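STRUCTURE:
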C-alpha cells in the first residue's frame, strides 16, 4: 500500500512536535524511522495511524485521505504496534493476539475457526505459541514484545507500523524481527519501523527517514542517509561510517564525546574512499 505524507504538522499541548513533514512510501518498502529521543518519531507513527489529529497537511493511504476514513477501515489497512502497552490486566497471551481480529467482526460476532487459525499462525511465526495460555503479566519484556508483534501480524493488514518492536529483545530475536519484516515486504507488505539500532536498520531496511527536532532531515537508501555529517546534525556526535570489510553491511563507529584526534582508535593509517568521518567541526 502506498503512503503519501503531505506537509504534515502535529501539535500536542501547544507545542509543535512534527513540522511540515512530507514523505512518500511505495508498496513493499521497508522503511526505518531513525533519530534521537524526543525527535517526533512516535508522534509521526501515531499520526500515520490516525491516533493524533493533524494541525495541517494530509496523510493519504493509497490515495484515500486518512481523515475521512472510519476506524475499522483504517484497522483493516494499517496495524500499529505501539512503543509500550499497559499490561495491568492478566489476559492470556492468545487473548491479546485475538483482539487483532476485531476489525473483521461485527459487534455481536464471536471469533470463528479462521480467526483462531490466524492467531495460531501469527504466534507460531513469532515463536510464542507455547506461551499462549500464560498471563501477559507473567511474561518477560521480550516475550511480551513478541506477543504484541504476533498481534499486528494477526491483524492481516497491508501496512505495519512498528514503534521500537525490538525493545527488550535479545540480539537473536531483534535480528529475527527485522529479517521477518524484510521478508514480509518482499511479499508485498509495507512496513515503517522506529529503530535505534542504526546498523540493524542499515542491514535490513530499504529506505531510512532521519528525523530530528520534529523535521525530516534526510530520506533515502541507508547508504545515503547514514553518513557522518547526517549523524552529527541529528545526534550531535562524532562518528565514522564505513563498509564492513567482510560482509555487505554498513558499520558505524561512534567516537567518545570531545574526541579531536582519531589516531588512538584506528588500526590503519589508511581511510577507505567509502568511509565518512566527522570529528568536531572537521569532515574527512
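SEQUENCE:
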Amino acid at each position: 500500500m502506498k503512503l503519501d505524507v503531505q506537509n504534515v504538522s502535529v501539535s500536542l499541548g501547544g507545542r509543535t512536535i512534527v513540522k511540515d513533514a512530507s514523505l512518500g512510501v511505495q508498496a513493499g518498502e521497508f522503511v526505518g524511522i531513525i533519530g534521537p529521543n524526543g525527535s517526533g518519531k512516535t508522534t509521526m507513527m501515531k499520526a500515520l495511524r490516525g491516533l493524533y489529529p493533524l494541525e495541517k497537511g494530509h496523510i493519504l493511504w493509497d490515495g484515500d485521505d486518512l481523515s475521512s476514513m472510519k476506524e475499522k477501515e483504517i484497522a483493516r489497512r494499517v496495524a500499529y504496534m505501539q512503543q509500550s502497552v499497559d499490561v495491568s490486566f492478566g489476559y492470556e497471551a492468545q487473548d491479546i493476539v485475538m483482539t487483532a481480529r476485531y476489525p473483521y467482526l461485527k459487534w455481536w460476532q464471536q471469533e470463528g475457526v479462521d480467526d483462531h487459525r490466524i492467531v495460531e499462525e501469527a504466534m507460531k511465526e513469532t515463536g510464542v505459541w507455547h506461551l499462549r495460555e500464560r498471563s501477559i503479566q507473567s511474561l518477560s519484556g521480550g516475550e511480551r514484545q513478541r506477543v504484541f508483534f504476533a498481534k499486528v501480524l494477526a491483524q492481516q493488514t497491508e501496512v505495519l507500523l512498528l514503534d521500537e518492536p525490538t525493545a527488550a529483545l535479545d540480539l537473536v530475536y531483534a535480528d529475527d524481527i527485522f529479517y521477518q519484516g524484510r521478508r514480509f515486504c518482499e511479499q508485498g507488505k509495507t512496513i515503517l519501523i522506529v529503530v535505534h539500532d542504526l546498523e540493524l536498520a542499515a542491514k535490513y531496511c530499504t529506505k531510512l527517514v532521519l528525523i530530528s527536532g520534529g523535521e525530516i532531515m534526510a530520506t533515502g537508501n541507508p547508504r545515503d542517509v547514514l553518513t557522518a555529517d547526517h549523524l552529527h546534525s541529528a545526534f550531535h556526535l562524532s562518528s565514522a561510517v564505513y563498509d564492513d570489510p567482510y560482509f555487505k553491511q554498513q558499520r558505524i563507529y561512534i567516537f567518545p564525546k570531545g574526541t579531536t584526534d582519531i589516531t588512538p582508535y584506528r588500526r590503519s593509517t589508511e581511510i577507505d574512499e567509502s568511509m565518512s568521518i566527522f570529528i568536531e567541526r572537521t569532515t574527512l
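REMARK: Residues 227-283 form one domain.
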